[in-house]
Amino acid sequence: MCYSKIVRGFGPTAQKVILLLLGGLALGLSGSPNRYKRVLKSISRDWKQIERRNLYRGIRQLYESRLVNYVENKDGTVSVVLNRDGRKVALKYKIGEMKILKPPRWDYKWRVVLFDIPQTQAKLRDALRQRFKQLGLIEFQKSVFIHPYECRNEIDFVIELYNARRFVRFIEATKVDNELHLKNKFRLS
After folding, report:
1. Are residues 58 and 135 in the same domain?
2. Core-most of 24, 48, 77, 159, by most CB within 10 Å?
3. Is residue 43 in some structural domain?
4. pLDDT tens by residue, 46-67
5. Rounded distance, CA 88 to CA 104, Å?
6. Beta carbons within 8 Å of 14's beta carbon, 6+ residues apart
7. Would 104 be classed as within a structural domain?
8. 115 and 35 in one domain?
9. Residue 133 sits in which domain range?
10. pTM of this prediction exceeds 0.90
C-alpha cells in the first residue's frame, strides 16, 4: 500500500488524530518517566486544539480509510485504536520532527546501531543511512552508526517505519577504541 497517497488525503484534524493515537503507542514504548510526561504534555496540547465537530469528521475519515478500528468497551464506551497501517502512517508524520534529546549528563554509554541489508534492498539501506544521519548518529563504519545518548525509542520508530526489524541490531557499549575522536565529534567532555 502506498502511504504517501493516503497521507495527502487527510486534513489537519485527521493528521492530529493519527498523531494523538500514536502518542498512546509512544506511551506504551516509553521506558522513561520523563519521556512519559513529555508525551502526555504534547498529547494534551494537541488535543485541546481540535474542535469536537472536526474531531468526529476526522475519526470517521480515518475509519473509512481503514487506518483505525473501533473497539467497544464493556462499559458501553467506544475506543478508537490505530491499526497496523495507521501506525505506519502516523510514524511517517512524526519522523520529520523526531530528535534525540541530550540529557543533562552523559551516562558514558555508546549506542551502536548495526544493519546488514541485502543488495537487493539497496534503497532500504540508503534510506536507513539517511534517516540515522538526520537523527544525529555518526557513521562509524559502512553499516554501523553510533550515538552517545539514549535513542532506542527513536531507532525503533525508524525500524518500524521501514519494516527493517530483521536487519537491524542495537547495542549499548561502555568502551569504543576511538572514543576520544567520537567525544570530539559529539562535543562531550
Report:
1. no
2. 159
3. yes
4. 555 555 666 667 667 767 777 7
5. 32
6. 58, 59, 61, 62
7. no
8. no
9. 110-185
10. no
